[in-house]
Amino acid sequence: MKVVILGSGRVGARLAATLDAMGHDVSIIDKSKDAFSRLPSTFKGQIVIGIGIDEDVLREAGIEKADVFAAVTNGDNTNIMASQVAKELFKVPQVIARIYDPLREETYHTLGLQTLCPTTLISNTIVETILPGASKPEQVPASVAGRLE
Amino acid sequence: MYIIIAGGGKVGRSLTETLVNDGHEVLLIEKNPVKVEQYTEQLGGVVRRGDACEAQVLLDAGVKRADVVIAVTGEDEDNLVCCQTAKRKFKVNKTIARVNNPRNERIFRALGIDSAVSHTQALLEAINHELPSGHLHHMSGLRDNNKELISAVIGQNSPVLDLPLKSLMLPSGSMLVLLMRDGNPVPPGSDVRLAHNDELVILTPRGNDAELQKMLINS
């Protein structure tokens, strides 16, 4: 499987290393060269330095032949934009965007983007660990401070 | 009209002031509390602190009754997300986004932004227009995104110099809208010959640059 990953942070680098070790064809993009130091020395995939919302950078990473695109930079909006470019313009069959902000995640999930919100996932996992089987509230009120970054 | 503006940089601030003076109801959303305080002092109660990419912030700003949302931050991703949230989640009729990188203009349109405005492109066009005669100038796109207005200034080496206006051949689908000579309009059907420094305004399908350049500017 051909996978293009945007963002070589902890998640991106680990995802790239895992899929690479499983024998998949991996390209990983990051704007900073230093970010690739997180990749293991055994990594056989392709490394692309550039901005992930740039069509030419995505092309260089082989987006046109990709089966999967995963956007895991630390910027929600960058992930959202890059994912839409991959999905709508390059017609990548499976596109996944990490979005930290639960409200934004909900919005884009509703609009048809495949999204993952680590904030909700981890919070729910902790709740599940300390209160197994307890029912969680449908909606969690958002804090004003959290909205102001 | 109720207009929400996202991003209080130079563009957002001037835009707010202009639209307020034009009599519109305007709300500027800006993240930086120092700027919010400063603008509130200068412009009055038309500024609110927040991240306009947040659905809740837009909702609190009354996005549901907004006629237009304009995103003019320095980050294209932020402008896209703000306009998409306004458009798709809150059904705002018209969204306008500033495009910082001209390469993103096409992407913005493809992703449903009503109007993508690139200041870099606008600046290039404006400078291009000031250059000596013998050039093409993109004046404006139309609502029909496939057509645009182009101005051509006839230079000394133009292949159509001295040609009767009525014999002028343009690329298929194009139309001469106006001829300007010495600051005065000359109707397209007039019995005149094309002269140096004449400005032709042409409505044409997009992508005809090379052909128009060859026909009107240099052979």
Which key terms come to mind for this protein?
heterodimer; A: 149 residues; alpha/beta; 6-stranded parallel β-sheet; 6 strands; 39% helix; disordered C terminus; B: 219 residues; 11 strands; 27% strand; elongated
Would you write up a description of this structure?
With 149 residues, chain A is α/β, with parallel strands linked by helices. Chain A contains six helices and six strands, in the order βαββαβαβαβαα. In chain A, α1 (10-21) links the parallel β1 and β2. Chain B has 219 residues and is α/β, with parallel strands linked by helices. Chain B has helices at residues 10-21, 33-43, 55-60, 76-89, 105-110, 119-130, 209-217; strands at residues 2-6, 25-30, 47-49, 68-71, 94-99, 115-118, 135-141, 147-153, 175-181, 184-186, 199-205. In chain B, a hairpin with a 5-residue loop joins β7 and β8 (147-153). The longest helix of chain B is centred in the middle third of the chain and has 14 residues, at 76-89. Chain B is elongated. Chain B starts with a strand and ends with a helix. The mean pLDDT of chain B is 89. Classes of the chains: A alpha/beta (149), B alpha/beta (219). The interface between A and B is medium-sized, with 24 and 24 residues.
**Uncertain residue ranges of chain B:** none
Task: Tell me the strand percentage band of chain A.
Answer: 15-25%
Task: Write down the secondary-structure element order of chain A.
Answer: EHEEHEHEHEHH
Please provide the count of β strands of chain B.
Answer: 11
Number of helices of chain A: 6
State Rg of chain B: 22 Å
N-to-C series of helices and strands of chain B: EHEHEHEHEHEHEEEEEH
**Between the first and last Cα atoms of chain A, what is the distance in angstroms?**
37 Å
Of all chain pairs, the largest interface belongs to:
A-B, 24 and 24 residues
